[in-house]
């Protein structure tokens, strides 16, 4: 009988302490993967100047990555499986469009305002279903974007099915790219830091076991509302950005895509790693773009790819890669 | 034992569907004592704790904490005034290391308001405070135990962790829901001094227990429940000699 043994690499163990700064190699070991992501993302618009179409895909990809991050945070750190990604995007988008076109607020103010007010609004609307857990919460949150779509259609408010057009665009291509890339990086590293703070631990406690959190004298509903606020804010920013990118806000902002693709991305990238959500979208969105000229047949390829991932590497890419990076494996006799 | 009443229950009743879990239970707990609650399986002991700590709402009756009514308050508010509980089925945060489990109660509004943990203070480093508390409760600081994931800890340590979670709230009352059950004799021998130490620090303890011998060693007064009714109350020695209590535990035959 043999079994695979996994052992942490010496360098990993050493870099966990303050000794990490003792040698160039160890500093590089820590910074390498992070720099790869940061520098890679920042250089991406320059590289893609050769292919303008793909440069535009990068923006949309980053929006999806933001929504995936908000899903991963809420599902794997707070235990709220929220299928309402499209709701956050839609609320943020419509608010920014309203601020910009009806009130004449410039884009650099309307996007932050839409982020904050949108997060407030989403949290307020989610309050009644915060006591729900698991699949019940998932189903109710799935209904929210559908509900708002129907309301806008039925009452013909906010431009009805035509949407709100004439939204300001970004002044130039670089603002367009870096507005989203910088925010994505800030959100990614910010969230990673946040979940390891004391308050982040409380949220993770809510996921593990909310009864104990209650018994510790902490109002669980408040904590969940806080988490939804953060998550909704991230999604609303994505929506507000999209509106200014398309110069138009319509009910397609509430599309199921924004609820489903981020979840698929988190599954592929590895749930609970946060960076996995980003990596997952960076694989999924370009893949679905590349398969666009295959027409509806792309759905088949898309499904096969997803199924293959779930069957063969259900832990997700990032979990796998992190393991390979930090540990070595060997066969030992039992 | 001349101190004042800290917690008093007046006619608590609770039913689940057709099952009368508690009927008209009243009792008083004095400040600083160890009060035991015993009774056979299904006699309503845990339901009683749930009713007091807010995890269940009593159908009838009132709960007073320092003459203030707290009936039907939500659990976090009750914990905030200083009434904490352990769970019979341990509920640590499995995905966090043992010492990080205590960050959550230490972060609670009550703990932050009271502060004053040595080394930690109001805005101090909660990790240090957490390890201090764990050491106090029997986790060896220099071993790897406090830093292990809570899910990998043996039962004895998980029980201690439950107690540590209560202690880090700096409570006035701790409800111990069967802290001795599932522990070996040596583990119980290690737990008992902790309980006595808490008493010396002035904490009121209410212990629900099946391990009578161990309970009677520490408890000042004991109440016995059967089918949701209080059948006896008094000093430990008297209660176990009570005829009804004997019947409840051993059947109606003379022993």
Quick recap:
Chain A has 334 residues and is mainly α. Helix content of chain A is 71%, strand content 5%. Chain A has a single domain, classed as Orthogonal Bundle (ABC transporter involved in vitamin B12 uptake, BtuC).
Structure description:
The complex is a heterodimer of chains A (334) and B (255). In chain A, helix 2 packs antiparallel against helix 7 (173-194) and helix 7 runs antiparallel to helix 10 (220-246). A two-stranded antiparallel ribbon of chain A has the order 1-4. In chain A, strands 2-3 form a two-stranded antiparallel ribbon. Chain A has helices spanning 10-15, 24-47, 52-77, 85-102, 107-126, 134-155, 173-194, 198-208, 210-215, 220-246, 257-269, 275-290, 297-312, 317-326; strands spanning 2-8, 164-165, 248-249, 327-333. Chain A is mainly alpha-helical. Chain A has one domain: ABC transporter involved in vitamin B12 uptake, BtuC (Orthogonal Bundle), CATH 1.10.3470. The model of chain A has no long low-confidence stretch (mean pLDDT 87). Chain B has 255 residues and is of the alpha/beta class. Chain B has one domain (5-250): P-loop containing nucleotide triphosphate hydrolases (Rossmann fold, 3-Layer(aba) Sandwich). Chain B has 11 helices and 10 strands. In chain B, the strands form 2 sheets. In chain B, strands 6-7-8-3-9-10 form a 6-stranded mixed β-sheet, sandwiched between helices. In chain B, strand 4 and strand 5 form a beta hairpin. The longest helix of chain B has 16 residues, at 185-200. The radius of gyration of chain B is 18 Å and the shape is globular. The model of chain B has no long low-confidence stretch (mean pLDDT 85). At the A-B interface, helix 8 and helix 9 of A face helix 2, helix 4 and helix 5 of B.
């Amino acid at each position: 009988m043999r079994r695979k043994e996994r052992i942490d690499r010496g360098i990993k163990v050493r870099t966990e302490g303050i000794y990490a700064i003792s040698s160039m190699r160890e500093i590089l070991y820590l910074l390498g993967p992070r720099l790869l992501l940061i520098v890679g993302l920042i250089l991406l618009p320059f590289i893609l100047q050769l292919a303008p179409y793909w440069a535009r895909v990068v923006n949309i990809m980053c929006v999806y990555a933001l929504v995936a991050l908000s899903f991963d945070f809420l599902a794997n750190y707070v235990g709220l499986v929220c299928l309402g990604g499209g709701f956050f995007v839609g609320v943020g988008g419509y608010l920014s469009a309203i601020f910009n076109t009806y009130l004449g607020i410039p884009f650099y103010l309307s996007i932050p305002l839409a982020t904050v007010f949108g997060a407030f609004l989403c949290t307020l609307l989610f309050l009644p279903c915060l006591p729900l857990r698991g699949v019940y919460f998932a189903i109710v949150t799935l209904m929210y974007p559908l509900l708002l779509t129907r309301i806008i259609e039925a009452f013909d408010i906010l431009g009805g099915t035509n949407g709100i057009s004439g939204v300001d665009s970004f002044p130039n291509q670089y603002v367009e790219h870096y507005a989203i890339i910088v925010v994505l990086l800030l959100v990614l590293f910010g969230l990673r830091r946040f979940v390891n703070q004391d308050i982040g631990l409380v949220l993770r406690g809510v996921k593990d076991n909310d009864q104990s959190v209650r018994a510790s004298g902490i109002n669980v509903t408040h904590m969940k509302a806080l988490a939804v606020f953060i998550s909704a804010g991230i999604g609303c920013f994505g929506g507000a950005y999209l509106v200014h990118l398309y110069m138009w806000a319509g009910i397609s902002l509430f599309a199921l895509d924004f609820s489903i693709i981020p979840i698929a991305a988190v599954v592929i990238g590895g749930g609970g790693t946060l960076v996995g959500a980003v990596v997952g979208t960076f694989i999924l969105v370009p893949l679905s773009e590349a398969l666009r000229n295959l027409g509806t047949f792309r759905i088949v390829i898309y499904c096969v790819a997803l199924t293959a991932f779930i069957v063969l590497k259900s832990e997700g890419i990032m979990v796998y890669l992190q393991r390979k990076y930090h540990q070595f494996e060997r066969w030992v006799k039992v | 034992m001349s101190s004042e009443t800290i917690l008093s229950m007046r006619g608590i009743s609770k039913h689940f569907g057709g099952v009368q879990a508690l009927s008209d239970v009243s009792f008083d707990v004095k400040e600083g004592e160890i009060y035991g609650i015993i009774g056979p399986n299904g006699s309503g002991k845990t339901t009683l704790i749930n009713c007091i700590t807010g995890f269940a709402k009593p159908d009838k009756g009132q709960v007073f904490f320092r003459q203030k009514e707290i009936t039907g308050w939500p659990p976090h508010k009750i914990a905030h005034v200083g009434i904490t509980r352990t769970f019979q089925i341990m509920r640590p945060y499995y995905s966090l290391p043992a010492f990080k489990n205590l960050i959550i109660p230490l972060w609670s509004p009550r703990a932050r308001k009271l502060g004053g943990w040595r080394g930690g203070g109001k805005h101090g480093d909660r990790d240090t405070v957490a390890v201090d508390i764990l050491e106090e409760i029997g986790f060896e600081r220099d071993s790897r135990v406090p830093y292990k994931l809570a899910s990998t800890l043996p039962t004895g340590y998980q029980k201690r962790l439950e107690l540590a979670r209560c202690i880090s709230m700096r409570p006035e009352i701790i409800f111990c829901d069967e802290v001795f059950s599932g522990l070996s004799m040596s583990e119980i021998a290690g737990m008992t001094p902790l309980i006595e130490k808490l008493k010396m620090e002035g904490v009121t303890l209410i212990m629900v227990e099946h391990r009578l011998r161990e309970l009677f060693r520490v408890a000042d007064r004991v109440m016995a429940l059967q089918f949701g009714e209080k059948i006896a109350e008094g000093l430990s020695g008297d209660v176990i000699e009570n005829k009804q209590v004997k019947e409840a535990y051993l059947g109606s035959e003379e022993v």
